[in-house]
Amino acid sequence: MLTETESLNTEEIKPKNVLELNHIGAKDFFLKADSYFRSELPPYIDFSIMLNKVNENFPCPNMNPNRKIIEYVNHTIFTNKDGLYAWRPLTLIHPYLYVKMINDMCKESNWKTIQQRFKYLKQNSCISCHSIPVISTKRKNQAEQILH
Fold first, then answer.
1. CA distance readout (Å), 15 to 97, 135, 137, 147
2. Which residues neighbour 57 within 8 Å (Cβ) at sequence distance 6 or greater?
3. Which residue among 33, 87, 98, 134 is least packed, with the fewest CB closer than 10 Å?
4. pLDDT in tens, 42-52
5. In Å, how far are 25, 86, 91 from 83, measured between CA atoms?
6. Calpha distance 133→15 (Å, rounded)
7. Separation CA 46–CA 50 (nearest Å)
8. Which residues pair with 80 in a beta bridge?
9. CA-CA distance, 35 to 29, in Å (whole number)?
10. Using CA atoms, how far apart are residues 46 and 136, in angstroms rounded to an integer?
11. Measuring CA to CA, which residue among 12, 40, 38 is closest to residue 133?
12. Does residue 144 contact residue 35 with C-beta atoms inside 8 Å?
């Protein structure tokens, strides 16, 4: 039995979700490499450098603002689950489009709108969203998401 001073603080145990962050924290979270691509890759493939460079140079002066989104090329990676015929395509969104989406989504007014919408939807007991990304200090965010 735990004494009052030894009692567990549930706030420390419960992981934060991304909606609890302000717009700057959310942007930092989404610009991490493991938010961009969640599957396991060899350690020498690190998307954080690329995402940081794109974000630093955003908006890119060489990009045509009238260019249609469909004209950007995404990259498809095929992965095999069991070594036989279970091939799955994983698509990497173009880094420029990803950073543009994060910058738009994490503008202060837009982020507050997203937070308010989720708060409104949470009021309905029939709706429960379990896919909101969680932030972990103990393990990888993906592991925390699965455990959550």
1. 29, 6, 8, 10
2. none
3. 87
4. 888 889 999 99
5. 39, 7, 20
6. 10
7. 8
8. 87
9. 7
10. 20
11. 38
12. no
Please write the tens of the pLDDT for every residue from 47-86. 999 999 989 888 876 777 677 777 777 888 888 877 777 8
Residue 103: exposure state from Cβ atoms within 10 A (0-12, 13-18, ≥19)? middle
CA distance 47 to 61: 22
Token pair for 104? 């738009």
Q: In terms of DSSP bridges, do strands 75-80 and 134-135 run parallel, antiparallel, or are they unpaired?
A: unpaired
CA separation (Å) from 71 to 36, 61, 65, 67, 74?
A: 20, 17, 12, 7, 9
The percentage of residues in the chain with a pLDDT greater than 70, rounded to a whole number, is: 80
The answer to whether 35 touches 55, Cβ cutoff 8 Å, is no
Q: Which of 9, 60, 55 is nearest to 29 (CA)?
A: 55
How many angstroms separate the CA atoms of 38 and 59, rounded? 25
Secondary element (H or E) of residue 48? helix 47-56
